[in-house]
Amino acid sequence: MTQEQNVVPTTRGEMQTAIRECWEQALGHADFGDDDAFLLIHGANSLTAVQVMVALGGRLGTRLPVRLIMRHTTVRALADAVLEEEGA
């Protein structure tokens, strides 16, 4: 775990970075943009969606529902939804 992973993201930009890192880890690559729909990215499926949400929840010290990534499918949209969910 890097030092940055110990910092809880509080801004949209920080949250987008945290989400991108979780996506990269679960997918094994960074061949996607902030506006790409998660399930349309090579290697993404329901299992990797669960892995992303568990990893992201671990970074935030909370439990996030998988429905968030299914309803808010891009890095940008998911960042906003997580911030709203967490009340930040």
Number of helices: 4
Mean pLDDT: 92
Rg, rounded, reads 12 Å
- Unreliable stretches (pLDDT < 50, length at least 5) are none
Strand content: under 5%
The percentage helix is: 40-55%
Q: Would you mind describing this structure in some detail?
A:
By secondary structure, the chain is mostly helical. The protein is built from four helices and no strands. The protein starts with 11 loop residues before the first helix and ends with a helix.
Short description:
The protein is mostly helical and 88 residues long.
Outline the secondary-structure elements:
Blueprint: H1 12-27, H2 46-60, H3 67-71, H4 75-86
How would you describe this structure in keywords?
mainly alpha, single chain, 4 helices, 88 residues
